[in-house]
Model the fold of this input.
Amino acid sequence: MLGEAAAGLALGLSLAGPPGPVNALIAREAVRGGAWAGVRAGYPAPLMDTVAMLLVLFGLPRVLDVARWAPFLAGVGALLMLYLAWDTVRPRPEPKPLAQGAVWAVTLSNPFFYAWWPSVGAAFLAATGGWGVVGFLVAIFGWVAGFSFLMAHGAARWPWFGPLVGLLSADGLLAFALLLAVRAFA
Done:
């Protein structure tokens, strides 16, 4: 029970934590309008993840034998997580600020959102069950709130915070990619 919840928490943080357009929008809004502005800007992403999770939990098993396809889904998920880990730490120019409400469009137009849930999400849910779901939800919603408050109150004091989050996110993605690869080939 505790292990499943911890796995859900870790996976949720590895999904929500990497630097990207959603976190850039959260940071921008939190710095400009305070922590609650960052929370309002960021919550569409975990709301969409919750909808996708419910579809995977209750819809995917009706059209696909998840247990039979779990190794394949885990393999696809491992490749996706490896790419996301690399994408998290690769050098790139600073992101441009996004328009208010853009997180909905970013989430819905992101192909990784649609690839992640049937692969990583389905394999994870098959392995951890209800407590994994609880840990995952706590992590993705908690990340938005925590990140908003940290950006609003600590970014000016801690210039190392952003790079550290990126490094830890990449490490988490790499760890999950390796776990999924082991599951795919076991």
Notes: The chain is about 85% helix and 0% strand. The mean pLDDT is 76.
